[in-house]
Amino acid sequence: MGLNARTSEKIAFSLLTLSAMTVAGFVVVILAYIIYNGYSAISIEFLTEMPRMRMTQGGIYPAIAGTVYLILGSMAVALPVGIMAAIYLNEYAGENRTTWLIEMAINNLAGTPSVVFGLFGLALFVKYFGFGSSLLSACLTLSLLILPVIIRSTQEALIAVPNEYRESSLALGISKWQTIRHVVLPAAIPGIVTGSILSIGRVAGETAPILLTGAAYFLPRMPDSVYSQFMALPYHLFVLATSGTNIIQTRPLQYGTALVLLMIVLGLNIIAVMIRRHYRQKLKI
């Protein structure tokens, strides 16, 4: 005898609630572990000074600045290109073989390991274009890495905009581009910002691409141009935890670096969420 509808609904709701609480529990445990082990390393000196003594003393200011530069630089390249590509695929391109090939290429790029992007960036930007191991090479490589995420999220956001918006605008004699710019895009901004949040998290946490294109472990100075090498928190954390000087002695520094990286990503995500909420409230009005 099968379960009745009410019992099935209760079981399904319980399983979904358990799944959500399990995920939230893992996140809380990870955050609590990192905070517990890393808070002792956090200080004004740690956040604002240059590293000293092969990073066993001093701070991580260059790594913090380098990570922020990577996020801003890669998003400045990938966001406009990704949004324009998604607009073309969703609003202009018809369903044909060329579009199918582009869609397949985007799907394949989304599943490509990050180390492959790093090797590609090494061959193209570092060697072929002659940018060298630099902030510019790393930003361009990371922009390629997050491009599929931005394109896909923007496409989904554009698809979610009701066709009635487009039809009503076109019926008033407004051109297609003006309709996209003034009607469709504002309605899709919350979804586009969601894709940007995912991209920020991935850029901030990637190690392999920047390892091959410009990151340095110990560089006690700020990059003076886009052609300079730089420090970054994920690579810095990787070296500290695996092959740094006195790994056991620097354990608090490792957790402190991880905590700072989480705080940077969290802060940028909060800003993005506030922008998304602003536009959602604006659309309700």
Walkthrough of the structure:
The chain crosses the membrane at residues 12-36, 60-89, 101-125, 131-151, 230-249, 255-275. The chain has helices at residues 5-38, 44-48, 61-92, 97-110, 114-128, 135-160, 163-171, 176-205, 208-213, 233-242, 251-284, and strands spanning 51-52, 57-58. With 285 residues, the chain is an all-alpha fold. Strands 1-2 form a two-stranded antiparallel sheet. The protein is globular. The termini are far apart.
Give the topology.
Elements: H1 5-38, H2 44-48, E1 51-52, E2 57-58, H3 61-92, H4 97-110, H5 114-128, H6 135-160, H7 163-171, H8 176-205, H9 208-213, H10 233-242, H11 251-284
Antiparallel strand pairs: 1-2
Which features does this protein show?
single chain, mainly alpha, about 75% helix, about 0% strand
CATH T-level fold name: MetI-like fold
- The outline comes out as globular
Radius of gyration: 23 Å
What proportion of the residues is helical, as a percent range? Answer: over 70%
CATH architecture: Orthogonal Bundle
Distance separating the two termini: 50 Å
Class by SSE composition: mainly alpha
Mean pLDDT: 87
